[in-house]
Amino acid sequence: MKMSENSSVADHLNDFNTVVNMLALVTIEFDEEVRALLILCSLPESWNSLVMAVSNSVPANSKLKFEDVVGVILSEEMRRKISGESSTSGNALTVETRGRQKNRGNRGKSKDRARSKSKNKIVCWNCGKPGHAKKDCWELRDKKKQQEENKEENVAIG
Predict the structure, then answer these.
(1) Using CA atoms, how far apart are residues 37 and 55, in angstroms rounded to an integer?
(2) How much is the pLDDT for 35?
(3) What is the mean predicted confidence (pLDDT) over 90-99?
(4) Which spans in the chain are helix H?
(5) 123 with 112: CB under 8 angstroms?
(6) d(CA 40, CA 34)
(7) Which of 30, 84, 97, 107 could make an S-S bridge to 34, C-beta 3.0–4.6 Å?
(8) Cα–Cα dist 64/76, whole Å
(9) Which Pfam families match (predicted)?
(10) In angstroms, rounded to a whole number, what is the distance separating the alpha carbons of residues 15 and 1?
């Protein structure tokens, strides 16, 4: 099951989940890492750089998480839509920008690199909500607080 170049990621994810659920009905189940790898392998060739980045970003002792991979894929689709880049035009855009620049007056002044990303464009890998990164996730912070409170209660009881 391969995603076509110009189809929506959301549609592809829905189709993928439908197939996984149908297989689960006949007792064929996949663990989280296998589902993550399957969804990465089902992306079209224009997504190869993202697939490689995600595959190489996992530490040796940990596994890919399906929810994290889905978050990365959805974020990449959003980035492509915002930048006006279609699935197939990604490589063409990099080729078109090569060559001599028309405006060489600002040589050495990299204004674009100094600016950070706008917070509203960032999507959390934990909860999937825009406006913050995983390290600043409110849900994750609340879970950690709850776990600490539970530990304190267990120590007080024991």
Answers:
(1) 8
(2) 92
(3) 43
(4) 9-25, 32-41, 48-56, 66-82, 90-96, 111-114, 138-157
(5) no
(6) 10
(7) 30
(8) 17
(9) Retrotran_gag_2, zf-CCHC
(10) 9
